[in-house]
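Hi team,

As requested, here is the filled-out complex form for the zinc ion run. I kept the field names the same as last time so the parser does not choke. Let me know if anything looks off before we queue the next batch.

— J.
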Amino acid sequence: MTPATLDITILGSGTSTGIPVIGCNCPVCTSADPRNRRTRCSALLQYGVHNILIDTSPDLRLQALREDIRHIDAVLYTHSHADHMHGIDDLRSFSLHSGKPIPVYGSTRTLKRVRENFSYIFDDMDQPGFIPQLTLFPVEISFELFELQIIPIPLLHGQMQVLGYRCGPLAYLTDCSAIPDSSLELLEDLELLVLDGLRFKPHKTHFNIDQAVQMAQTIGARQTWLTHLSHDVDHPRHEPQLPEGIYLAYDGQTHSLPIQDLKPNSLRTLRP
Ligand SMILES: [Zn+2]
Ligand SMILES: [Zn+2]
Ligand SMILES: [Zn+2]
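And here is what came back:
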């Protein structure tokens, strides 16, 4: 039977430095509010017994221990920046336990970077070591994972093309500064949008909070969580200033989304 819910957990809501930033004494970095403590950006999707990890942040081990994640059944990569990928070695504990390779999905360009930057994982010369067992699957158009349709959403992160992902009523779009119209068409009727909203000042490769709010209103999901937050963003102070339905993400935040209304036919119309 098809599971009735898709659950998301924000594993990390922070920008590339994590919050607190090393050596910083600002009010957010020294805040006692746990929502101002942000590990690097990542999320977990749970569908039935399946755990799908979005990105392998440098904080993956801590995130997995914190959320008691016992297995990872697939990884979706958004792009190859260090804050989204450099926890890749922590996947070895999961592949050791399961005894099988973990399928890893991403754009051709991102997976090329995985092979280049972490060649010891794929290079026969280094065998047999305690390394992650991974199988790479380049994706461009929608694909099925554990009976769940996953739709890659092309985004612009400065000049770089990266991917967000849509799964049923949920879209996860980190690290972006523009969303092409052809991608906006894939983002209709969302319950939950997780969207990059780095900080208040403009940035070349990320939406700032104003741009993210504007984009969230254009997309019109029932609720939007802003993620990849810097230490300029103070959760208790700034969240109440956001428009209705738009919130700041925090580590450990969860949401359960019903998916029984999405029949295969209605999903098929979302194919790019
Ligand atoms: Zn700070
Ligand atoms: Zn990035
Ligand atoms: Zn990033």
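Two things worth flagging: The CA atoms of residues 96 and 132 lie 8 Å apart. The first strand starts at residue 5 and ends at 12.

Thanks,
J.
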